[in-house]
Amino acid sequence: MLDKVKNAFTESIQTQISATESLPELIVQATDMLVACLLAGHKIIVCGQGRSNANAQFLVTNLLHRYHLERPSLPALLIGLDGTLGSAIIADNNPSQIFIRQFECVARQGDILIILSPLGREEAILNLIHSANSKELPIITLTGQQNDHIRGALGEDDLDISIPAQKETRIIENHLLVINILCDLIEHRLFSH
User: Fold this and answer.
1) Which residues, 6+ apart, have CB-to-CB distance to 5 below 8 Å?
2) Which Pfam families does its entry note (predicted)?
3) 8 Å CB contact between 145 and 163
4) Which CATH architecture has domain 1-191?
């Protein structure tokens, strides 16, 4: 059991070391996109597939409430399938369309869509990307190494932050680190003057 625990720490550390080399510029670029969106009076729409919904909720909480600083709320909205709404949408629609109704109802020109998808091949996520493309909304994706489907659906103004890992657990935990960094940078840019 001790070896299993040590291996988990080692995998996580190795993933973070690889990410340190490949992701900082992308995270700064994502911060620039998000800050520009917020300064223009638009909102951030967030969607996480499967277990990534927890990270998506955490991101929206940090934007609406706070990360470190006491400050005004930032406009952020979670698209998800909790409770009755999720049950009704799944019962009445093709599962590949589960996020579309919510997204199309709230998305406006100038908003940004953030998608968390560790595996990057879920049809519901790909359909959401196509819907955002049709509305000309910029997209930031947090994915893993196996994200060819998502990368192929993104436009030239979109951004993919791909964790250099294949194991879903390592991807999800590193998505949380990226979220923490983004929230820290956004607060710093907007409120630390």
Assistant:
1) none
2) SIS_2
3) yes
4) 3-Layer(aba) Sandwich (3.40)
Q: Are 99 and 124 in contact (CB under 8 A)?
A: yes
DSSP for residue 141:
E
Q: Where are the beta strands (DSSP E) in 23-148?
A: 44-48, 76-79, 112-116, 139-143
Nearest to 178 by CA among 192, 164, 157, 193: 164
Q: Are 184 and 68 in contact (CB under 8 A)?
A: yes
Q: Can you tell me the distance from the alpha carbon of 8 to that of 27, in angstroms, rounded to the nearest whole number?
A: 25
Domain boundaries, the chain: 1-191
Give tens-digit pLDDT for 29-38. 999 999 999 9
Q: How many other C-beta atoms can be found within 10 angstroms of the C-beta atom of residue 42? A: 17
Q: What's the token pair of residue 104?
A: 């199309």
Whether pTM > 0.90 for this model: the answer is: yes
Q: In the block, which residue shows the tokens 């040590």?
A: 6
Q: How far apart are CA 182 and CA 118, in angstroms?
A: 18
Rounded to an integer, what distance in angstroms lies between the CA atom of residue 99 and that of residue 114? 13
The type of residue at 14 is Q
* Sequence-distant contacts of 8-14: CB under 8 A, at least 24 apart: 11/165, 11/167, 11/170, 12/170, 12/173, 12/174
